[in-house]
């Protein structure tokens, strides 16, 4: 189909009539069934390939993913791991139900032949990739069948090309899990092929799974859908029937809460409602507690971060409502359908606005908090692009129909039509690919230090981390006989301790219910978490040129202590603070790699019979909060 016909089709009465017919529930259309432009199998397969690339190459920019999820999972599967204060029964603000689900998969994978712990790590990521691809396919199908096939196709292009979704898709975080269930919940509410009662109950159920098993605050994004169904239900079905539907939905959510509470109560050996504990600490924690003690950011942090990960898709999402208002008043032969469609689409744009507003108002901000809203952001971007194409299509139709024919008018108009459709997609794709490559090439070194080529599989002892504690990728990368330990650095907060090891092969680990020593919920440093450097057999350290002038006895450059340590493996690591150009540190630009400032990230091994001597006090980077790479770029 010529591009001008495609754009003009947005506003032809015939196309609009077909669009309206597609929105009618199947039960009311007889045997007529609307199908997406591409089959579910084709879309799922394509998305799966992209998500598997994320599973293989995505970094871990947030130490919370490691210490609060990978380490407890490793503990349940392999009887050792690092324990944060959140898992202490005194506080119990992490759910063993959520971790246990993944530990079950990890242990099952370990029974397969020739599977090392690193294989378990990446196999779990591949499962995340498959889950994400399936949820995206389900939302794509719901949009295509029930809203608009073109919007469904645009959503698919957006979610495939967005760098933010690439990084979030296979992260082991409750916010990523909630992102999956948000897709399923949105699909359920959008799907008009089922009865009002069924889609409401199913939609609330999926959001409840994401909030009660994953992250409680993620349930805020369901509010616009619930309000829309409540008002529509009262108007069409009456108060009594609508209340009955929502009682069924509430019972489903209560069933999820009961199951999660039962598992956590068994694990902690006392009654614990973990979702409630999370809300109480983060909202009503009191003085010197709560999320703000871990750092605060300005109100524009999320706008800057989303712009970095979604480029031109972010302004499209932010402009979706104004563009739909303009689309509402576009004069076409099918203006009545435009008005109906615009009002319905504005309702689908509200969740992203709501989420961004709520979390921008919170002082403590982290990139992962936005993961839940990524599906809504992608859908809002697709809706906005649809509105742009519709408005341009009306203008293109008007120009084509004018009696005044300019030279080469048709050719120029065709070129403009192609530009309006293809150029935004091409720009988004290129910038997103550049962003992904920049992160992978600049910050992947911590994932490559622990290969059997560098640390034998039968090795035992301690591997130590000073200022690089927050880039440790988890015990899944270490041999069974090795344990991660911490050296004192400039960081003065609370580091994880060691889970109490129990009897191998049992699920009832003592670390789940025994109260550990040295834990607190105020981020106060506990010196018992540190070891003497003389006990370290291996050490992971980095050196960044931008920090070379900051001398520190706590953060020396261990790589210069050749009498004690030998380099086993080193890789380049982007010195974001030392790379002056924002574009060069934020994006991968062909031919500009050497103009960046690079440091070294190294695995060191103690030399035989080495005597510890004070290393050179040429300090490396001082650790800070999570998402440091993104913060440096911003």
Automatic annotation (TrEMBL):
One of its GO terms (cellular component) is endoplasmic reticulum membrane. The keyword Transcription does not apply. Residues 609-634 are annotated as: Disordered. GO terms for biological process: protein N-linked glycosylation. Residues 623-634 have a biased composition (Acidic residues). It is found in: Endoplasmic reticulum membrane. GO terms for molecular function: alpha-1,2-mannosyltransferase activity. It is a multi-pass membrane protein. It comes from the Eukaryota. Keywords: Endoplasmic reticulum, Glycosyltransferase, Membrane, Transferase, Transmembrane, Transmembrane helix. Belongs to the glycosyltransferase 22 family. This is Mannosyltransferase. It comes from Terfezia boudieri ATCC MYA-4762.
